[in-house]
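ok so for the tutorial part 2 we go from a plain amino acid sequence to predicted structure tokens. step 1 is just haveing the sequence, like this:
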Amino acid sequence: MNPLEEWYDYERLTIQVLTVVMGLFFTGIALNELSVANPLTDFVYTYYLDPISGESTGDSGYNMVNTMTYGAVLAMFAIALSGWLRHLGIDPSDKTLLALLPFVLWAAFGEVVEDAEMFGEFFSAWFVSPGVHFQTAGWVVIAGWAGYSISSSDSDDEKKKDNVRSVSALIIFAQFILYGASINGSGKVAELDIDLTLMMLFSGLALAVPWLLESSAEAFDSVQRTVYFSGVGGGVVLFGALASFMATKDLSQLNLWPVAVVIGAPVLLCMWMLEQGREAAAELAEFDIVAGILPPGMNEDEYLASESKEKDLIESLRLKATMAYPVAFLPVAGQVLDGLATWIGIDGFPGYGEKHVLSQRVIDGGLWVNEKLGIEHEMLDEGVWLFAILKFLIGGIVFWFYSMANFEYRQQHLRMLIGLALMVVGMAPGLRDVGRLMLGV
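step 2 — the prediction. this is what the tokens look like for a chain of 441 residues:
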């Protein structure tokens, strides 16, 4: 059997556990629809569904049960998906992570549109975490499946590129129709007399994205290109809605400086890390080596016990080379972005607070430190400085992990998906926070 087709025991177990979890979840919903009173339904609605519906109307927040569950399910999905993607032959390199990056922005834009109450009732609930992540995953699957079908066809390369552009434009158009209709039918749009002309203009631009960004996708395969174009185009559609909302405000009512700080600092960090590691990564790439990915058939114990010139080269360049890998610097930047957004939002703007249970406990710890040490400062008095420091430290731990970890050749998809999960949990909420700050919603 091809080693790439072999399943790890932990992958099989994870899929089984996810099947049971999802089965129980939907059973609870089904029993509610049948009006059958039972503790499972009460549990599902109390800890998962009611907080989501409450947030779409009043920002009801999280509880300890759903917070822990979401974290565990996210980790299990990463493990299960790594096996499926390996079997499908999806490229596990960092290029796939870069192709998925626009959908992180897509999710953040969608959440801010929801915060501005521009969606109708149905989609409002679907742009609340964690529903927004499942919806995002749905569009990624649609785009990925379309790209995979094109890639598997007998067409020549040019025809495949044409098909990718056409299918991507169709997916973008579908998003425009779905979300545009919801936004246009929203009572908030009429209440604020929001002119949607800008959304229409941006949506027209979005449909041209597969052609406008063709040169930027040259290194991508058909699957990556379809996902990339669909994510960018869909994000432009949603940004168009935000642009229409911003047009209702005076420039003085928009808080632009947090955007410059919260996004600018992580971007500069990424550029610095990339520049620091570029030469080392390129030197390893000349030998078709990626630091942290072991040769086919070798496990970590065998690698650590081995002695070779290739290993000496890898170990001498590993630290710097890791700085240039998107799977490392993007999650690090995401953690920094989230820390800055939360710190500036809560300490710098009245009316904003933390809704995640664990994060609030860290902030409470900062308040306790302030009280014990008698700290009084405009940007420290809310205690959120401790949360920001923790996020910066987590970013450092993420980099340390990737600089030290060795993934077997069959685990490349897991390596990429861990990076994606760490990027999403930092970058997505951070971008949403700074979007809310900018619009004042």
